[in-house]
Design goal:
The protein has three helices and no strands. The chain has 120 residues and is mostly helical.
């Protein structure tokens, strides 16, 4: 192989390397954005769950009214709360979870997040 051919191959590799650096930089930026979004979602879901739990407790403590409309509205709220709890569960399936004690002891701090249904 002649030096000229080696030099041309080096130039091609150098261009590929520069493209790789830019791609990796973009990847890191988007990964940071995804992590921020995950944390925002986790925080919001936890807040919603807490509020729903408080609302459920308050609904049980409400003075029962004899009105049929009040009973229907209460049941409607309870049904929506159950439905949303299921939706929260589905949302959490795509978000990272904290490792349990055993997993942390055996494997250390492992962060595995499957971002698509196919990956799961």
């Amino acid at each position: 192989m002649a030096f000229q051919e080696c030099w041309e191959e080096w130039e091609v590799l150098d261009k590929d390397y520069l493209m790789l650096q830019e791609t990796h930089k973009l990847y890191k930026q988007q990964l940071e954005e995804v992590i921020k979004l995950q944390n925002t979602c986790l925080t919001s879901i936890e807040r919603q769950k807490k509020k729903y739990k408080e609302l459920a407790s308050n609904l049980q403590q409400c003075e029962p009214l004899d009105s049929e409309e009040h009973s229907r509205e209460t049941e409607f709220i309870k049904e929506l709360m159950k439905e949303r709890q299921n939706i929260f569960f589905e949302m959490e399936a795509f978000l990272p979870k904290r490792n349990g004690l055993y997993l942390t002891l055996v494997l250390g701090n492992v962060n595995v997040t499957l971002l698509s249904k196919q990956a799961k």
